[in-house]
Design brief:
By secondary structure, this protein is α+β, with helices and mostly antiparallel strands. It is built from 10 helices and 15 strands. It folds into 2 domains: about 180 residues, no CATH class; about 100 residues, no CATH class. Helix content is about 35%, strand content about 30%. The strands form 2 sheets. Strands 2, 3, 4, 5, 6, 7, 9, 10, 11, 12, 13, 14 and 15 form a 13-stranded antiparallel β-sheet that branches. A two-stranded antiparallel ribbon has the order 1-8.
Length: about 325
C-alpha cells in the first residue's frame, strides 16, 4: 500500500514536472500572421559582406528633398529615395550609401564632399554614392574593398536571427514606417558610442545581456513625410512629424521566466506600472521623451516618442 502511494505521488510529481517544463520551454512569442509594416524596400536591400554591429535603413516611400538652402549654395537641391548607415566595431568605423533619384544628384553629392574637404571616402555608381570614414582601421579598409568589389549580401542571409526579430513588429502601426535597423550587443560598438558621447552605457548593456538579449531591432515611424531645409530644422517641425520608435529585444529565456522577474525589475529601475487595453505598461521618466516598456512572452518592447499618446499607440499596435 505504501509502495503504491509512493508510486502515485511520484507519477503526479513527474507529470507536474513535465507540464512545467513544457510551459517553460514553450512560452516564446509567436510572430503575427500578417507581415510587419517596415520601410519600403527594407526586406529586399543588400549590405556589404562585412560584419556590421549596427545598421540603419531609411526609406519613407517618397523621395526626401534636401533643399539648396541647407547646403548653403555648395550644391543644388537634391532628392534621395533611400539611405543606409553601416556601423563597425567602434564609433569611428562608419560607412553608408545614399540612393539618389538621379545620377546628377549623386555626382553633385560627390563634388560637395570634395569641395568641403570632408574626411570621407566616396565611390559613385550610377544613382548611388557609397561613403566611409577616412581612417586606416581594418574594418573600414574591408568595407571599402567590399564595396569596390560589390560583394553585397542580403541581411536576411547574413543576419538571420536579427532579421527574424522584425516579424514581431506591428503590421498596422498608427503611423508610417520611416527607418529600421539593429544594434548588435555582442561587440564593442555600444561601449565605443558611450565613450564618444561621454555616457556610461555599461549598466544598460549589462542589463540587456543579463536578460540574454544579444541584439536590439528597431523601427522609426513618422506621421508626416520628412524634408530637410533650413526652415524645417526646428523643434516645432520635429514635433509635427509625430516621430516615434519601437525597439524589440528577444530574450534567450522562456516567457514564463521573463514574467517572473519582469515586474520587479521594472520597479527597481524606477518605472511606473499601469494597464491599458489589457496590457501592462511600464513608463520611464525620460524628460521630454515618453518611454514605455512592455513584454509579450520572451519579447521585450520599448516605445519612445515626444507624445505619450503616440508612444502608447505604437506599443499597443505590437500586441494586436
Amino acid at each position: 500500500m505504501i509502495a503504491k502511494s509512493f508510486t502515485l505521488r511520484l507519477a503526479y510529481l513527474l507529470t507536474a514536472l513535465i507540464v512545467f517544463t513544457v510551459n517553460l520551454t514553450g512560452c516564446e512569442a509567436t510572430p503575427a500572421a500578417s507581415p510587419p509594416l517596415l520601410p519600403q524596400g527594407f526586406a529586399d536591400t543588400f549590405v556589404p559582406n562585412v560584419n556590421l554591429e549596427g545598421y540603419v535603413y531609411f526609406n519613407q516611400g517618397s523621395p526626401i528633398t534636401i533643399s539648396a538652402d541647407i547646403l548653403q549654395g555648395a550644391a543644388p537641391q537634391m532628392s534621395a529615395d533611400s539611405a543606409q548607415v553601416w556601423l563597425g566595431p567602434d564609433a569611428n568605423s562608419i560607412g553608408g550609401a545614399v540612393s539618389f533619384t538621379s545620377e546628377a544628384n549623386a555626382q553633385s553629392s560627390t563634388q560637395l564632399i570634395k569641395s568641403t574637404g570632408s574626411p570621407v571616402w566616396s565611390l559613385t555608381s550610377g544613382k548611388v554614392i557609397y561613403v566611409a570614414t577616412r581612417d586606416s582601421g581594418q574594418w573600414t579598409a574591408s568595407l571599402k574593398d567590399t564595396v569596390n568589389r560589390q560583394q553585397m549580401v542580403s541581411p536576411k542571409i547574413k543576419y538571420p536571427e536579427i532579421s527574424g526579430d522584425f516579424a514581431y513588429f506591428p503590421n498596422k502601426p498608427p503611423v508610417k514606417a520611416l527607418a529600421a535597423g539593429f544594434l548588435d550587443l555582442n561587440g564593442t560598438l555600444v561601449d565605443s558610442i558611450g565613450a564618444k558621447l561621454n555616457l556610461s552605457l555599461t549598466s544598460y548593456e549589462s542589463a540587456l545581456k543579463s536578460a540574454k538579449i544579444s541584439s536590439i531591432s528597431f523601427v522609426v515611424y513618422s506621421g508626416q513625410p520628412v524634408e530637410v531645409s533650413a526652415r524645417t530644422i526646428n523643434e516645432q517641425y520635429i514635433k509635427s512629424l509625430q516621430l516615434g520608435v519601437i525597439a524589440v529585444g528577444r530574450s534567450g529565456y522562456p516567457g514564463i521566466a521573463i514574467s517572473l522577474f519582469f515586474d520587479k525589475a521594472m520597479g527597481d529601475a524606477g518605472l511606473t506600472k499601469y494597464s491599458v487595453r489589457g496590457v501592462d505598461v511600464y513608463e520611464y521618466p525620460a524628460g521630454n521623451v515618453r518611454l514605455l516598456v512592455a513584454h509579450k512572452d520572451n519579447v521585450i518592447y520599448v516605445a519612445a516618442a515626444l507624445s505619450k499618446e503616440i508612444a502608447e499607440n505604437l506599443l499597443l499596435s505590437s500586441f494586436k
